Amino acid sequence: MSLCDDTLLCNFPKCRTKLSGFAWVTACSHVFCDQHGSGEFSRSPAICPACSSALSGKLDIVRTELSPSEEYKAMVLAGLRPDVVLDISARALAFWSYQVHQERMFQEYSLSRAETQLKQMEKVLTQQNQSREVELSGMRGEIASLKKVMEEYKRKYTEVSERLMERNRQYQKLQGLYDSLRLRNMVVDVGERDTQTQPGHQGYNTGAAQQATPQRSPQFLSLGPDGDSRFFSCLEPDGAKTFFQFSSPARERGRPFIKKH
Predict the structure, then answer these.
(1) Model confidence pLDDT, tens digit, residues 149-180
(2) Torsion angle of the four alpha carbons 96, 102, 104, 108, in this order, in degrees rounded to the nearest 10
């Protein structure tokens, strides 16, 4: 704020608004807006909110109009000697100069504090950027290592896939051989069952035939060294005579002898 500015600011720490209408002026050269002045100076004893000075005098606190009327301007200093008017004007200008200086100091303080905060934030930002760079470099290293691991897993996966395909081919081949051998065994089992069934039936027929026939096959027997007649008979066991060998002597003597020519 410069000397040409015609607006003061409230000196209340948390207000800092431009003054208009009425203002409260203290003997310690501070000025407050009508709201905060009415609230702060209504208590006794009155304490300046800006510098904590005690304001116990009758004229230590004055409520003044910032935009007085023309009649007030014409009558406020009327009848006073020039030296008194100049003294009053000098004190009023000193109050204004103090407010300007105070506002300048406040702005410089605010600027220095802002610069300090900015430096601190820049320092923190630099540290954060450094830590982020370190983390980023570490993450890049991890990404590179993970890529290597992924490539290794891809290679192993390819090998395992090839082995699995080869095992599947071998399995299909063995499955085909197993199916063919199973079918062959089934055919062999069916043939054996048929073979076992047929010989049993034939054996039953053969046994029945052997019971109906003699033990030895029929032979042609001659009735004598010179006889040409042959008979078909059933033989008894070895050493036994047949029915035709038992003939009476009278019959043997009565047969005519037939001589071969």
Answers:
(1) 999 999 999 999 999 999 999 999 999 999 99
(2) 180
